[in-house]
Amino acid sequence: MSDSKPIETHIESLGEAKIKTLLLDDSIGTSKEMFKSDKDRILIDVNAEAVLEQIKNQQTPTTFELAGPREKIYFDPSKLKCALVTCGGLCPGLNNVIRAIVLELYYRYQVKHVYGIRYGLEGFIPEYGHNLVELDPDKVVNIHEMGGSILGSSRGPQDIEAIVDCLERLNIGILFMIGGDGTLKAATKIVEEIKKRNAKLSVIGIPKTIDNDIFRVAKSFGFDSAVDIATEAIKGAHKEAEGYPNGIGMIKLMGRHSGFIAATASLAQQDVNFVLIPEIDFDLEGENGLLTRLEKRLKERKHAVIVVAEGAGQNFFQDSTPEYDASGNLKLYDIGIFLKDKIRSYFYEKSMDVTIKYIDPSYMIRSLPANPNDHVYCGFLGRDAVHAGMAGKTNMIIGHWNNFFVNVPIPMTAGKRKRVNPKGKLWQTVLEATGQGNLTNQKPE
Amino acid sequence: MSDSKPIETHIESLGEAKIKTLLLDDSIGTSKEMFKSDKDRILIDVNAEAVLEQIKNQQTPTTFELAGPREKIYFDPSKLKCALVTCGGLCPGLNNVIRAIVLELYYRYQVKHVYGIRYGLEGFIPEYGHNLVELDPDKVVNIHEMGGSILGSSRGPQDIEAIVDCLERLNIGILFMIGGDGTLKAATKIVEEIKKRNAKLSVIGIPKTIDNDIFRVAKSFGFDSAVDIATEAIKGAHKEAEGYPNGIGMIKLMGRHSGFIAATASLAQQDVNFVLIPEIDFDLEGENGLLTRLEKRLKERKHAVIVVAEGAGQNFFQDSTPEYDASGNLKLYDIGIFLKDKIRSYFYEKSMDVTIKYIDPSYMIRSLPANPNDHVYCGFLGRDAVHAGMAGKTNMIIGHWNNFFVNVPIPMTAGKRKRVNPKGKLWQTVLEATGQGNLTNQKPE
Amino acid sequence: MSDSKPIETHIESLGEAKIKTLLLDDSIGTSKEMFKSDKDRILIDVNAEAVLEQIKNQQTPTTFELAGPREKIYFDPSKLKCALVTCGGLCPGLNNVIRAIVLELYYRYQVKHVYGIRYGLEGFIPEYGHNLVELDPDKVVNIHEMGGSILGSSRGPQDIEAIVDCLERLNIGILFMIGGDGTLKAATKIVEEIKKRNAKLSVIGIPKTIDNDIFRVAKSFGFDSAVDIATEAIKGAHKEAEGYPNGIGMIKLMGRHSGFIAATASLAQQDVNFVLIPEIDFDLEGENGLLTRLEKRLKERKHAVIVVAEGAGQNFFQDSTPEYDASGNLKLYDIGIFLKDKIRSYFYEKSMDVTIKYIDPSYMIRSLPANPNDHVYCGFLGRDAVHAGMAGKTNMIIGHWNNFFVNVPIPMTAGKRKRVNPKGKLWQTVLEATGQGNLTNQKPE
Amino acid sequence: MSDSKPIETHIESLGEAKIKTLLLDDSIGTSKEMFKSDKDRILIDVNAEAVLEQIKNQQTPTTFELAGPREKIYFDPSKLKCALVTCGGLCPGLNNVIRAIVLELYYRYQVKHVYGIRYGLEGFIPEYGHNLVELDPDKVVNIHEMGGSILGSSRGPQDIEAIVDCLERLNIGILFMIGGDGTLKAATKIVEEIKKRNAKLSVIGIPKTIDNDIFRVAKSFGFDSAVDIATEAIKGAHKEAEGYPNGIGMIKLMGRHSGFIAATASLAQQDVNFVLIPEIDFDLEGENGLLTRLEKRLKERKHAVIVVAEGAGQNFFQDSTPEYDASGNLKLYDIGIFLKDKIRSYFYEKSMDVTIKYIDPSYMIRSLPANPNDHVYCGFLGRDAVHAGMAGKTNMIIGHWNNFFVNVPIPMTAGKRKRVNPKGKLWQTVLEATGQGNLTNQKPE
């Protein structure tokens, strides 16, 4: 058995960490045992058979490095300047992560210069004229009570060289980037540009996606809070559906490529009869099509509730010209409006009176403050991001795996995506709970 | 000063109430003094000068009869059958009113036969095939925890004779109708048909309008709960607006003809910069137009929040052909979508990047359970409706005026509408809070 | 009919208001018609018969002056300094009132010097060493999201002369006092001392009592929010009571002298079997005593829920020596603990196993942020307090009566108390809802 | 490397499962791949080094069997009767687990006879006279909206033989026991008695502890919901503390032997200055004692917030005679009241005025409905319990480990306890967040 770490989970570093971490004032009572070493690693796969098989074959199982404070740090806190940026759509917990990073830098490491970059990557580009915000404990101590991001955000890429120019002008040592897949890709490009310039600049990501679709991250922050409120929308749609003869309540939820919110919320509030997610195609017409099934349901029970993830059913738009948003994300066709119209005309043609109530709670969810569970989680993410940055690590994110916080190389996760497994426990349970069946006329393989 | 009651506030009655109200079991401890007489009346107008002037002119000031139990009742509880119907759109508190009516009939008056009519007026019409629901304490005791209506509802009128046929077939003595202006008009027609047939059938209304626009009713049930959640939508829109450069958050709230929800919610969550209500016209273009003002606001503060009531700005659609919904209500053009498009194209032409986030929380609000305040209120409405019906009163609703529950004749209120007074305290305070100014290019008179 | 205002509702004034109120910037769009005159008055009593009787007897009915802005003001905004103090126990809405006062002074009247006095009346007394807080829009704009008072509070009187010394030292023109009955009494003494000194200093009160017991004020701020959460405690107690054989859930709620919270919350969450309030004595022992009735209830239904206001049952402690708290309020014996012990030993002696779960949510309620309804209400109170002070009025509070905000002389309300009427609609409905009966062995008169 | 399963994680079974699981109606669309085999196992320890070391030493790492449906079942659904009991203190989620078990038995396995045992183990004993409840989908479909347990509960052991007598009389095949450590011990005794009698009766536990202290279970249901509301209590205490000069807010939270709720809630609402948990002793007096530190904090910041777990500081009561409750749990002395008194007299002696506000939200928390996160979690627990029982497994609980639901033998977990590790990430972070230091005068080793 070889001792070498598998390359893909090895964390890059700016150089040797030589400075002793300031022990917190003794009166705080923290213990030296909280320091982690890069050799503290956890197995990624916990399938016993698979691991034993690997070992039998002389393969080293893949592992993640534990996140957390290191005994030696790379940066001199008294001279260090840090920057922090939030990118992409809003998500519950952004302010909580900002708060945790600032407080940890300030109190634990005595780093007094932390700059907030306004409005996402735009904030690095002089042409936009956005000011910097100096962040200190006073400014952040209460921000977790509010949704949104005190820094603001924006979508879309910016010129990588201009970003690094800005970082150098500001003399930044660690850049914390809170954002989704596009942001992580930008982070890696920034790292490459930094290397070209031989700069001593660490880039640490905190993965943000309300859709919970980060590859190799068990749960992303804000997901829990999102499900909390999504259930309220389902409750409302259910009551509206029950409220009228042949009432149909339809809720469009977040989920561009992964249906975790739709599936989980449908288990959290089991009033749902049809869940449509991006991972699973469905037919509208034909014996097993959604419309036929919906008609059957209405005839039996007089009402129906449909949850549709925003990325579901994109196959219906295949012939349309693709468009992209500022972040370069494929613009999704509005499956909610599409379905509402299809349902309306289907029953109109059948002369069957139905009442459709459509709820799109997206921006009420995205702008929420984090719930207590997410607040605790964001606190750990922010603190561990600081620990990683201070130790000189770079090109990595803080992840959560097998109940441990871990350091994950960005190249291992960016560009990939976690998705609902149609044969896994989550989706099979949704099928049981809804009784919706396979909404397709093709024979399953 | 004459003793005669002004005709318009006099409550119609089926005949003399001769049966003694069952005193509650002494062990309950209620007091005989809780009985009200029809002579217990309150002044409608409390403006001191106006009242004194009237009296000087030998006019009797207009008064409302107090709601509440009467010592003698008209119906024999042991033989009485009652029916209950909920009509029109959902509104927080419907189940609370149903619950209060059923429990009061059952426990206080020992009326054991209460039928719930399903799906609004449709439920009276055999062709629809909706079943009756027998209601008893077991069925209703927990329904106030849920939004919606356990009976369901529907929009639109039904044949009045067919309704009264059904009531006679069921041998109903009191019909409780929970609904809005259309329902109250139907109630009066039902009363007329009943009179033609010389039937002994009381019709008692409980006015329902989430818009709070019932004439001569200070506050309608559900309004408070609606404002509660409308503020959450405003918070969300504010965070979304702040979240992006030139961010615009827009919330469409209920309010077909009256802007009470929009105005009140904007005072409850003072993040709003523009409130648009049906009572006040506004311009889009020109120096004072919304678009110009919005541009100014964005340039100064980088974000803006707009609340628009669904009935605002209907003048922009004057040239379109009017359409009507099933209830005969004028179908409103969607001012929310219209504004969103106008704003988008205005800034597009100016090459000014803006981000618009649009929230329409209507069905999440309408389907809410009532908050505690509304629950208490609905309890009184339901119990007083029962007292009125048992006393043989008819063609009336339960209102709330000067902090008293009162019996109000339907003809006095139906077809009229309470609206926000542009020069009154509420709207003037909204103007102060938003600083929005007169969004019109016409000189004020 | 005489034109003279009845003395007891006449508002004192510092002198003639000669300065024109700055019209708000035209762009705000407010209307001159929002100005009120001192002659705009509303009837206090709306009982039609009583009012007509009075008039027949040549008596002028008592009226309240409407609150609101006056066309002329007494103070010159450019020179005016104002102070603001919160006294007594916490109550939802304190920060909302502070916010409204500061914003109205600042934006509407352009008063730029507003001082917050810290920790109640203590803050006036140099010996305590509490600093002043300068208040401006930045400091207050978000405080309504938080419970408590940003100024802090304290109980108990302080030397009146020392208070006025402080006000003079600070050159204060208007003092806003937010507090309960003790505070209003102090306010009147401060007014007297000011008169002695011939100072031009207005004192405006905003009545604060979570108990809702201010005489001649229909509802005090925070009450609604308190009931909201009190219902959660009742729900909890009910579930605990149902959770065990012979389970008893007991909730102690606020209400030193008036049982409004206990009574209203018991209607808002109708799981309660016994409500005990200060207005109504009850027996423990004997045929009708609480313990006997409780035993009966347990035998019939296996669980029971009791709500007790903190001021109920004080007769049980008559032989104990009275104690007073720092505010001079009679210290109440803890009826909750007393009852819990009595119940426990009663059933112990009867060898009947019971489980008692006791909930005292007081400080979770008092420290709440205001709900949206209360926020709107507090906004009006604060703004009208400012209007009154600017107009040179003094020795008054802002009240709410017949749905109007009114100016009420402190001497008319202080020292009196609004209480639950045992024969009125609220309590009679509680009796109906609980079925608790008269818990006394004395024959009712 | 040996293939043999380590004995301690092997699940007992009643016998060979021979009956094919009814495939759900094809229209449901569930997949055969959702079946798990007993050989699907996950590693317990994920520490990479430890696992590799074990393997090098020819030891098989310990593994858990995956929970989930099996292809073959042991019981014939058409003849099977099941029973369900909830024991010990209330906890959010009890009804959710009941609901999931009943619905899964009914719809998935077509088991139509499910009995609810009332009031915990008492319900088995004829002397108590508690009735059985027949459970079906109608009875349980909405119960997750409510806190508590629809079955009720009780504390304390009952005669094991009498329990098994009752099970045999009812002809029960699977008994589901939802309860804490005491219940799991009883479960094992019941299993032993069943074996003696050679009965074919499976006993499946769902571990319930609001304290989250079940050994080898990462998170127990209800914990999340408890933290949600505990944070509200902390917010309240913080506002009360800030509200008065030298204000002290103290919150007593659940946690008899493990301080997870106290520690987690203090991270979820970081207003806390001192967290006291059972795992860590503290001194009151002396340089580092709580009282000295509290005085210091008040002098610096004028207010302080203390969270104390109910089981903290039991060493202060060492000289008192131990008492036990009905469940045989050591009765804890009330550390909350004890501390409140100690603090009061300490500052009294120092003539320092302080205000202490004490909040004990325990029964408001225990009686809560589960939050959406917990509802999803309880759903999986309940369904997996049914799968295990149907497969003929026994003497086990459903656990959650490394993000998988697993079958855990009761003997492996009962009698042990998960506790907060004073040197682990959670507690070290609490120390950082509070800055409380070691509250002990002993030198740390």
The largest sheet of chain A is: 9 strands, mixed
Strand content of chain A: 15-25%
**Apparent shape of chain A:** elongated
Number of domains of chain A: 2
CATH class of the largest domain in chain A: Alpha Beta
Described by its quaternary structure, the protein is homotetramer
**SSE order of chain A:** EEEHEEEHEEHHEHEHEHEHEHEHHEEEHH
How much is the radius of gyration of chain A in Å?
A: 24 Å
Weakly predicted, low-confidence segments of chain A:
none
Biggest protein-protein interface? Answer: A-D, 64 and 64 residues
Helix content of chain A: 25-40%
Count of β-strands of chain A: 17
Strand order of the largest sheet of chain A: 3-4-17-16-10-9-6-7-8
CATH hierarchy: architecture of the largest domain in chain A = 3-Layer(aba) Sandwich
The CATH topology assignment of the largest domain in chain A is: Rossmann fold
* Ends apart, CA distance between termini of chain A: 40 Å
Q: In DSSP terms, counting alpha (H) and pi (I) runs of 4 or more, how many helices of chain A?
A: 13
SS-derived structural category of chain A: alpha/beta
Give the overall pLDDT of chain A as a whole number.
Answer: 92
Structural notes for this entry:
Four copies of one chain form a homotetramer. Chain A has 13 helices and 17 strands. In chain A, the strands form four sheets. In chain A, strands 3-4-17-16-10-9-6-7-8 form a nine-stranded mixed sheet, with helices on both faces. By secondary structure, chain A is an alpha/beta fold. In chain A, strand 6, helix 2 and strand 7 (113-117) form a beta-alpha-beta unit. The longest helix of chain A is centred in the middle third of the chain and has 20 residues, at 223-242. Chain A has two domains: 7-220 and 370-413, Rossmann fold (3-Layer(aba) Sandwich), CATH 3.40.50.450; 225-367 and 423-434, Rossmann fold.
